[in-house]
Amino acid sequence: MAGYLQFMTVRGCVEKVDQLLTRQAASRIPDGVGRVLSAVEEAAESSKLWWGAAAAMAVAGGWRGRVAATAGLSALTLAQLVSNGLCKQLADRPRPPKEWIPHEEVHDRPDSSSFPSGHTAAAVAFTAAVAPTCPSAGVACALPAAMIALERVQSGAHYPSDVATGAVIGLACAWLTRRAPSLLLRRVLA
Asked: What is the spatial distance between Cα 190 and Cα 110, in angstroms, rounded to a whole number?
């Protein structure tokens, strides 16, 4: 019983922080910044931004660029499967209430579950998987990944906890994608 009460207390705190941060992001980010965030998010829609980055790395980056692009796209795919294919189906969390969002962008959000942020999971997975092989590409991808995470809260599409969970999923998928070949090789040779 004590564990359940602790869980409910933590959950209540997370919900209060989610509400506060969502309202702050939606009302305090200037319109011009919001438009830039929306443009970056639109570029990342259906993973277009990340596929473009992977293509650029594969063409201009030589062997390292091709390895980084493959790792990034593999991690992105896994993150989308975990966040959109599994977690959203299990969680079925409603989006933040429209009355919290004082701008028109709130009407242009998906009807799917809010939890977790698939956009953030994909962005972080791609960036974290690319960075070890191609650090300059990782740095270049980090800014749009952060902008996407902020935009998902600012637009009213997600709560901050959805975005944070998406980031954790992205990091875990990047780690798994980068480690899977050596883990499989050890398993086969053992």
From this structure: 46
